[in-house]
Amino acid sequence: MEAHRQEILERKEQLTDYDEPIRKIVRYVGEPLHPGHEALETASLSLLDAYACLAAALKAPGVSRILGGVFEGEDAGGSISIPGTHLRAGLLSGAFQIGSLIRWLDYNDTFLAKEWGHPSDNLGAILAVADYLSGKGRELTVADVLTCLIKAYEVQGTLALENSFNRFGFDHVILVKVASAAVAASMLGGDEQAIASAVSNAFADAGPLRCYRHFPNTGSRKSWAAGDASSRGLLLAGLAIKGEMGYPKVLSTPRWGLADTLFDGAPLSLSGHLGTYIIENILFKVSFPAEFHAQTAVECAIRLHKKIKDRLEEIDRIEIETHEAAIRIIDKKGPLHNYADRDHCLQYMVAVALLNGRLTADDYEDEMAKNPWIDRLRGLMEVTENERFSREYHERDKRSIANSVKVVFRCGTSIKEEFDYPLGHRKRREEAKPRLLKKAEECFKEIYSEDKIARIMQLFHHKELFYKLSIREWMELFHKEGESHDRRSAKS
Fold first, then answer.
1. Which Gene Ontology terms cover its molecular function (predicted)?
2. Could you tell me where in the chain the CATH 3.30.1330.120 domains are found?
3. Burial 58-93 (b: 16+ CB within 10 A, else e)
4. Interatomic CA distance for residues 48 and 123, integer angstroms
5. Is the pLDDT of residue 489 over 80?
6. Where do the CATH 1.10.4100.10 domains begin and end in the chain?
7. How do residues 98-131 score in pLDDT, each as one tens digit?
8. pLDDT cut 90: percent of the chain above it
9. Which residue in 231, 240, 400, 416 is a FRET match for 71, CA 20 to 30 A apart?
10. Within a 10 A sphere around the Cβ of 397, how many other Cβ atoms?
């Protein structure tokens, strides 16, 4: 007993060697969390919404490249259920597939700050590990998974509040890797030293580059980059559990550390309190799969549609006022070559919404892009920064994502719409909830029967039963094989 106590003390002492941001993440992830009502309710919505996004993605072109494992026979004998399919996978492959499907259509929840990202990307690792542990006899409940979700969101989002990787050309999925590594290591039973090892190795990976999100390299990698990051975080967690060493000064070592290599010497910052702020302020994509900096612009355009649809020939120009982050990411001129180009182009999204009064995933496909009016309207657009929009985007009590769209006609008259907060914002949460549930049901209709959808939604609405439900039963409910088990789950 004394030797064991001494070993624990020595390992805790070793933790002090790590850079402070890593120690802070380790302490937060390793300690019990007791989320309040708002955090748990919002986490429940995030989980359901992630499954909805995954279901919608199964119909998307290109998804077949990632389903069933990358290599033939890779997933033979795997136990991880891939929701919405008859497939099962190995642990790492399952994390990759689940994470990629959730992220595929750019329809999942979002958090915007100095860095951007989609915290539900971490569900690739979280759900795969939960399913894996259940198969090993350690039954986790939905409530357990929601707590892990909240922690992963908090790690990724709080790092995003204070650090910008994109300014240096690196992609935000590095934060998915870090958060997934931390939470997965904890879920797998790792102590503080193991969690620290996993997190430090995730930071040591750095990258990837953001080039696949921007002209002229915009491409489909952005649909699976998050699944890759989440499964990589899980791999690093597994290695840490087996005793793989960590790198205590990975952030601060002169020349070779992350600060000097990525940030031109500026230290990685993590000064904020880690609690439940990120899940409580998460942004949902409720009505359309648009890059989140464009959500309010699309809302404006949809509102304007009926007023301008019969006056297209009369338009002189279209003035879009936005915030600095949107200009940096989605202000695009010139040819758009593919889906990935179009769903990250502010002008394209606004043009489609003005023309059709809606924006769906299909509107990014080649068939819609052939409409000559889209490029005609894009050519009339002027995008400028509104300083108030940029300032309030970063203010902690506002966190707005404002846009305005003004259509000016040749006769000199004009009409304008402006939104500070998109429908998925915390300030519009109650307005959004029924539409989020409708979004889920509509997405589920693509692959499930009405009876199965009713069972899923019934469970979700009975929170006491929902929180106590085993995660394996919840995941089997979404599996295409297992109707008899699904019925038992719904009645339990």
1. 2 iron, 2 sulfur cluster binding; 2-methylcitrate dehydratase activity
2. 292-422
3. bebeebeebbbbeeeeebeebbbbbbbbebbbbbbb
4. 11
5. no
6. 15-280
7. 999 999 998 999 998 899 899 999 999 999 999 9
8. 85
9. 240
10. 5
Looking at domain 15-280, its CATH class is mainly alpha
Strand partners, 209: 170
> 3-state secondary structure string, the chain?
CHHHHHHHHHHHHHHCCCCHHHHHHHHHHHCCCCCCHHHHHHHHHHHHHHHHHHHHHCCCCCHHHCCCCCCCCCCCCCCEECCCCCCEECHHHHHHHHHHHHHCCCCCCEEECCCEECHHHHHHHHHHHHHHHHHCCCCCEHHHHHHHHHHHHHHHHHHHHHCCCHHHCECCHHHHHHHHHHHHHHHCCCCHHHHHHHHHHHHHHCCCECHHHCCCCCCCHHHHHHHHHHHHHHHHHHHHHCCCCCCCCCCCCCCCCHHHHHCCCCCCCCCCCCCCHHHHCCECCCCCCCCHHHHHHHHHHHHHHHHHCCCHHHEEEEEEEECHHHHHHHCCCCCCCCHHHHCCCHHHHHHHHHHHCCCCHHHHCHHHHCCHHHHHHHHCEEEEECHHHHHHHHCCCCCCCCEEEEEEECCCCEEEEEECCCCCCHHHHHHHHHHHHHHHHHHHCCCCCHHHHHHHHHHHHCHHHHHHCEHHHHHHHCCCCCHHHHHHHHHC
Report residue 389: phi and psi, to 5°: -60, -45
Neighbours of 269 (CB within 10 A): 15
pLDDT tens-digit readout, 417-441: 999 999 889 999 999 999 999 999 9
**For the segment 362-401, what is each residue's pLDDT rounded down to a tens digit?**
999 999 999 999 999 999 999 999 999 999 998 988 989 9
Q: How far apart are CA 477 and CA 485, in angstroms?
A: 7
3: confidence class by pLDDT, cuts 50, 70, 90: low
| pTM metric for this prediction | 0.85
* Residue 117 bridge partners (DSSP): 111
φ, ψ of residue 141 in degrees (nearest 5): -95, 170
Closest CA to 426 of 287, 289, 291, 280: 280
Q: What is Dmax (Cα atoms) for the chain?
A: 87
Cβ atoms of residues 383 and 320 within 8 Å: yes
